[in-house]
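$ fold --in a.seq
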Amino acid sequence: MIIRRETPEEFSRIYDLVKVAFQTAKVSNGKEQDFVNQLRSSGNYIPELALVAEEDDKLIGHIMLTKTYIVNRSNKFETLLLAPLSVALEYRNKGVGSGLIREDFKLAAEMGYTSVLLVGDPAYYHRFGFKSAVDFGIRHTLDIPDENVMACELVPNALHEISGTTTDF
């Protein structure tokens, strides 16, 4: 398996990968592939943190980390949003998602980012250091259960004195 940056030439293949991957996901709104395009066209897209996993010239996984913010009355704290993580059904439970997350976290830390937010399954994401965002004083403005909105510190205590809300999921 090779993990590398996505390229514009494969955006349509990534769109299809994400769409098919989320057809068998535990939680999906059916629009994740469109969310990828929306994130790319936003000013928060970070090409260096949009990765694919491939094996034998076949795309088998995809991950994006994009900029988002935690806002309170007086401050706006930049963080990253992990959304979405996609792995082709036949490659699940083989380390593809873990490899993508670990590589993206390493790159993000090297670029100076200190934390990541996401909406997802706690049973999966806790192994990467994610905790409920409310434990850090971070809330989401949409009607998403607190246990599914999670945060992870790439740098110890990065969220120690950060609190507020986030809206970009």
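$ fold --in b.seq
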Amino acid sequence: MNPSINRTVTTIAVSILCCLSTGDYRAEAAETIRINGSGSSLYVMKPLIKAYTKAHPKVRIEMSKPLGSSGAINAVIAGALDIAVSSRVLKQKEVAAGAVSREYGRMPLAIVTGEKVPVTDITTTQLEEIYLGERRAWSNGEPIRLILRPESDIDTTILEGLSPGLNRALKTAHSFQGMIIAVTDPESDKAVAAISGSLGAAALPAILVEKVPLHVLTLNGILPSVHTLANGTYPLGKDIRFITTKNTPGAGLKFIDFIFSSQGRAIAEKAGVLVTTGAKAGK
């Protein structure tokens, strides 16, 4: 064969192989879904991811330590993540940047202590007294050690909404020197479990999915559960929403479709989520 023709054929063959290789890589990359969000929401994602990847073994779902709702939303907008799982509504500037929210449900936010704290129920009035510093010990004399979340955290906002008195009390607690403040849900859960005499709050999936050894208290006699949250007798609920953009890949959107399917809803409810109906994009 003419050497010039041989070189031409070789060049074409290499070009075709390169194109095929690039196409294969892109197809594989499109099946990788990057997810992050609030810690309590990521607890819920674990059984959903397990079920989905079992049925779709070619799909890889990456989920690292929680960035929090705001961090994950910013990462989705920047293209560093495909899906954010958020505990709050979108801010107007996030909507303007292209973020789209789809409501999914609510998780009971439980009042929790270390396992050895000798109480089973707590009242709103008692919580107000504890956060104000007026009640400093449990019935056995052990000091109460509060595990706070940052003032701007959604858990703090939810607790503040329980009563005007608790709103004031939490602001007072944050003004005290030397308070333990846990930034993320896992940090808070681990601190409550590890510190003697502790008191804090945790979303129900921390107990049902993550199996954190926490002592769940009834609040004014009502046990936090999907059922009591649904019928309105339990007052503390934490949202779970899915945030995407127009750049979220098809693989990510298919996973969200699974989460909203009857199978996905059943898995989420078992994990401690009250899945709401009539969810619409853009809220």
